[in-house]
Specification:
heterotrimer, A: mainly alpha, MetI-like fold, 71% helix, 0% strand, disordered N terminus, B: mainly alpha, 2 domains, 11 helices, 76% helix
Chain lengths: 284, 280, 345
Amino acid sequence: MADAGAQAPVRRARRRTTRTAWVLRVIAVGYVLALVALPVASVVQHTFADGLGPVWDVLTSDDFLAALRLTVVVAGVAVVLNTVLGVGMGVLLARYRFPGRRLVSAVIDLPVSISPVVVGVALILVYGTYGWFGGALESIGIRVIFAVPGMVLATVLVSLPLVLREIVPTLEEAGLEQEQAAQSLGANAWQRFWRITLPTIRWAVAYGVALSLARSLGEFGAVRVVSGSVSGVSQTLTLYVNDSYQELGPDAQQQAFAAAFVLMTVAVVLIVVIAALRPKEDRS
Amino acid sequence: MSLLADVGAATPTRRGRRPGELTRGAGLGLGVGVLWLSLLVLLPLAAIAASAFDDGVAGFWSAVTDAEALATIRFTVGAAALVTVVNAVVGTLIAWVLVRDRFPGRRVLEVVIDVPFALPTIVAGLVLITLYGPGGPFGVNLVGTRAGVVLALLFVTLPFVVRSVQPLLIDADREVEQAAASLGADGFTIFRRVVLPTLTPAIVSGAALSFARALGEFGSVILISANLVGKTQVSSSYILTMIESQEPTAAAAVATLLLVVALVVLVVLDVVQRRTARRG
Amino acid sequence: MTATPRGPLARTSSRLAAALVAASLLAVAGCSSDGRAAEGTQDAGTTLDLVGFAVVQAAYDDLAEQFATTDAGRGVTVAGSFGASGAQSRAVIAGQDADLVALSLTPDVDNIVQEGLIADDWAADEHQGIVSDSVVVIAVRQGNPKHIEGWDDIVAPGIGIVTADPGTSGSAKWNLLGAYTHGLGENRDEAAAEAYLAKFVGNVVSWNDSGRTATDAFVKGTGDVLISYENEAIAARAAGVELDYVVPDSTFLIENPAAVTVDAPAQAKAFLDFARSEAGQQIFVAHGFRSPFGVEPTADVEGANDPAHPFPDVHTWTVEDLGGWGAVNDELFDKESGLVTRLRG
């Protein structure tokens, strides 16, 4: 669009930036700058407005560390669960044919399209004390809502398809030949899975795990609904940011910003990893 | 938008099982997976639908036609639609610039675009209110304004259309464009007649994700919206208030309505996407 | 037949990232086990689960700190969850752990009693279980640009009122009671009260989840006036927030209860006793609360209009004047037929 037609038909047209290209470039860069880059930079500036000291104090405080621990545990468990589901169901969906295949795929895709608040409400309606299963679960000593299991379930739901969505196309692209060859050589299903399928989807799994981790670490709405946000106990980092922000006074605000900064840094690191894992495309 | 291709037909295997047929092990795995999905997804959603009609259809109707509920629904759907349209245009533009243009800092732009996806929503809210709220360096205060809410939604939905369109642009066959150019078509015509039709399925698919996300967004909006009655209150916030006020029926009713709206839009967009994909 | 090739950069950076993640997880796990080990060497501490309403967090944080320095409170840490009073009450009923509840109004505690989680005699002391008081005030922008003097000024056209939502918040109910009783006036004119409340509700621009989120919305620029607790206005000013507040000549007495749950450890009762003691009440007073036990501030109360005389004597209505919470909840706040519900449409 920039210049393909404006010059003599040479196979590799020399890139000359036209005015249109400049306008588009400015719009694109300006939009992203104003919408994303500037606000993010502003938070960084706010966080360190009083220097490194206050930030370090927050990062070494008990409540923050407890929130960090809880976030890592909840996100970690959620990512593991989703990876197992993603790999398992992914292989099943890509390699087998069975009635309801499309329905299963649609169901897995569903939670991502739902408001996180609704996800939380749905979990409460089933697993809360007055929910369908809640009473029965509590009588055998399992508390879901207002406890870590509920937070894990909420986090699992909001990132459910992320691993599977990466695996299925990869498996389909890879085709059946290797596995069929292995089978004809006598390999059983488990061997085929370990030796051929898994290595095939290795990078897709890594990509999906990174996406899933980013989503799980950052979940707020659903967890807000199912957790009591008890500081030091059931307060994740995102809840910590929210609760601190609501408190009065500059100390609390500093807590909110310091925690937000940590979350932002983790997000950026994960993005860089995700970008590196994205298949290297041929840029023409 | 379907992930599933056909499992190819092939010659029968040693054990006489046709490829694609479930073995016992696979069947067991499928059973476990389906059970997990039922407990995690289907049952909770069924609970929402059931709870919405706890007081019958009349109860459902009065819950969703409540003045405040209606105001939030109207605003939320309207804002989501606006944001989706903006994203369809700007997202395509950004994808174009990323793929077809070369300038210093392009790689940085790529990373920045993914930030809204990976950033926790509450942090996104904090980020926006810091710059566009009271005390921000530009002196503009968008707290409690519809523009503020729309801004937050634009923030969180930025990557969807961009990332949906980008792969298609990267893989695009430039020959048709070059042919059109050599026939004398100007840039814009080439874009409109040659490139856009191939991109439409991806734009639509990204738009669908953008709409669904905007409809249910909570964390990034909740700070900047200030929950102004009839003005900036979004449905997710209303649902939360209802559940905390011990009115699960009202919460479930509005949630169900939102789910239906999302479903309708997703189905429509899926149809559009498939039609345009077939044509393109 | 391998998967789509990923370059060497991808492999290196993902290995690096994996190493980073693993290292951080180990570090975090290490932190936690260190913490536990340290605790184990002291005498086993008790943790009390406190479920409180939003606005009282700072006071209870202080109380917990001071309590830990007393004999009865040695080794006791308080894990607090703070939020809208009504929502917190329902959370406890729905199973949230609580050894001690400190809520905004008595009905929120009574609802928990009904579930059997709190003993029936929780309010048997001379102050009916109340540990802190306050009054409803009108907070305005610094300098009072709209010249708000009292209740009548805030129902003028164009004045945006910020308050909390009575469905979730205790603060909301106190605020509405303040408005209602102003309309009632000395003559107890119910028609006038309804008329006033209608104008009040008509001017509300933002119904917030809790008293605290209402304050936050107001501070961020929403509305012209904030209806809230006197102690909240004082605490905000003490924290540097630029607002002023007006204590109307006639307002409503806010009474906040606290109670221990049936399965709570003994330290919970000790903590509650501490809150009721002279030392505990002094802490409340320092945070801008009025003391039902009559404890007077010994030092200036930072943030008050007049730090030396922080609690002006004004005429206050109480819930008893209106016939008790049962009557009040039915007439004003009932979700179907209550006056407020009807006025909100």
